[in-house]
Task: structure prediction
Amino acid sequence: MASRRDFHFPHAKVLYPTAPRRPYTPMGGAMSSVWFDRMQISPNVPDHTQSVDAMCGNLSALIQQEVANGIPKSRIIIGGFSMGGAMALHLAYRFHRDVAGVFALSSFINNGSALYKELESFQDNSPLPPLFYCQGEKDNITHPDWAQNTFTQLSSLGVQGTFTKYPIYHELNKAELQALKTWINGRIPES
Result:
């Protein structure tokens, strides 16, 4: 099992925002700490755009605060695990295309998502942030095919990156985090 101690950078600040508690439809409307609501856990349902966009606004304020504190967006990486990874993908590729990179671990984007539509209409020739994507081969929550489809769709829309599978469930492990640390150090070297 990996921990925050495994994810330390002497030359970088790491923020761990926490998803707010909200009613979560897949749990019968019970309160849960989730980044956004959704009708069910399936790639074939529409985004709950209102809750996704509201969280993008809240997290954008966090990014803008870091920029105001002197951190250039070219030295900011956005990422997360599961729903946090989905949030990072929406946040970076819809609203902050000038960050240093994006990572998604055991994550997903629904078919027909606003994210895909946004990238389809993207007219700027500037490169999109590179993507580091990892997935558990035994994941029974974010099925590996769902994650692979997400990566394939993003790649077809101009996102360049890597997709790596690990022999794990819906979890993090040290090998995955070490690969992520190496990737982050390559994107944001010590200055």
Notes: The domain at 4-20+47-187 is CATH 3.40.50.1820 (Rossmann fold). The chain has one domain: 4-20+47-187. The chain is about 35% helix and 15% strand.
